[in-house]
Amino acid sequence: MNTLIEGHVIASYGRHYQVEIDQQILDCVTRGKQSNVTCGDWVKLKLTSPNQGVIESIIPRASLLYRSVEHRSKLIAANVDLAIVVVSPVPSYYDLLVNRCLIAAEAAGIDSLICMNKSDLGDIADKVYAQLSPYQALGHNVIRVSAKHDISQLTPHLQGKTSVLVGQSGMGKSSLINALLPEAAIATRDISSALDSGKHTTTSATLYHLNADSHIIDSPGMQAFGLNHIRAAELDQLFAEFRPYIGHCKYNNCRHTHEPNCAVLTAHQAGKISDIRLAAYQEILRGLA
């Protein structure tokens, strides 16, 4: 009973976790009130009964995606290779949130792509896809799928990786899981058009096995993505299109907001940095400052 066993956290519910060990699922808790365990973690635990255990330690992570506000962090997923930012024409998505997700992934050393769901909605879907062109210009993969009809553009990106779906509520993350794994049978809900936002369906992060080498994590929908763990002075380095111009401003401590002879602002005026990305950078910077 005192032997430490290694397991994989496949679901997190507050301070309660489901841990997979040799295809057996254990209900586990952590010691004490505080916990920094998250879905995707590999952990060491002690059995307390044939179906229950106590997590004693976390095996060092290859990556960690999380969001943060002052004095508090919200872990999203660990040991992931790809963050899939899900957007859709309905309800409206927020460019700032998309950028916050992309920046968090960049800071964590995790690849990212943007997946526009609900591509079957006709003209409005075409319009939204066109609005995502600035991200394509940066080299981000931007794909369009329909969880109801066709997810073929998504599946090749998932092979051999652990991926996590992130984004606002109502974008259809759980519907994508259902399309990939019909047996998952996740409850999905209608969109509240009056509020133009999704009803929260997924309340916990859950990992699903697509095959022996490919896994996907569904995370709860979010309306905000805090980045307090990123230093203001390092934010510009997380915008790939800024990097060629950093160090060429008149002032060494230039923040690229209003300063004279700012190489980043000059590049923006020349059309080399999009309005969306500069606005996102400046908005995030204000929050960090």
Fold and architecture overview:
The chain is of the alpha/beta class and 289 residues long. It has three domains: 5-58, Nucleic acid-binding proteins (OB fold (Dihydrolipoamide Acetyltransferase, E2P), Beta Barrel); 64-218, P-loop containing nucleotide triphosphate hydrolases (Rossmann fold); 232-288, Ribonucleotide Reductase Protein R1, domain 1, CATH 1.10.40.50. It contains seven helices and 13 strands. The protein has helices at 95-108, 123-131, 133-137, 155-158, 173-180, 263-269, 275-288; strands spanning 5-13, 16-21, 24-30, 42-49, 52-58, 64-69, 72-78, 82-87, 111-116, 141-144, 162-166, 205-211, 214-218. A hairpin with a 2-residue loop joins strand 6 and strand 7. Helix 1 (95-108) packs across helix 7. The longest helix has 14 residues, at 95-108. Residues 187-202 have low confidence and may be disordered.
CATH topology label of the largest domain: Rossmann fold
Tell me how many strands there are. Answer: 13
In CATH, the architecture of the largest domain is: 3-Layer(aba) Sandwich
Secondary-structure content class: alpha/beta
What's the story with the biggest beta sheet?
5 strands, mixed, barrel
What is the mean pLDDT? 91
Strand residue content:
25-35%
The helicity comes to: 10-25%
Q: Quick one: overall form?
A: globular
| Sheet with most strands: strand arrangement | 1-2-3-5-4
* Corresponding CATH superfamily of the largest domain: P-loop containing nucleotide triphosphate hydrolases
Indicate how many domains the architecture comprises: 3
Give the low-pLDDT segments: 187-202
CATH class of the largest domain: Alpha Beta
Q: How many distinct helices?
A: 7
In N-to-C order, the SSE pattern is EEEEEEEEHEHHEHEHEEHH
CA(first)-CA(last) distance: 50 Å
For the CA atoms, what is the radius of gyration? 20 Å
